[in-house]
Amino acid sequence: RGVALDRAHRLADARDAFEQFLSRYPGSDRTGEAAVMLGWLLLRSGDLRGAEARFGGALTDPVERVRRSARAGLVALEAR
Known about the structure:
By secondary structure, the chain is mainly α. It is built from 5 helices and no strands. The chain starts with a helix and ends with a helix.
């Protein structure tokens, strides 16, 4: 849902969808992926602290692609 809302340029709704997912399903196998996607949304909207927290939380995800995106997000934060 969050991805579809982001693609529709409904950023606030996408952010809310990702936050709800993370709140409702903290043990999901997709938690890291959702956290990274939310991190990128937060970065684009200027919430640097929120983005940093979401990227940092995904650094230990078991999926390398998610960890790589989290690291890239932290690098993008440093560049700001």
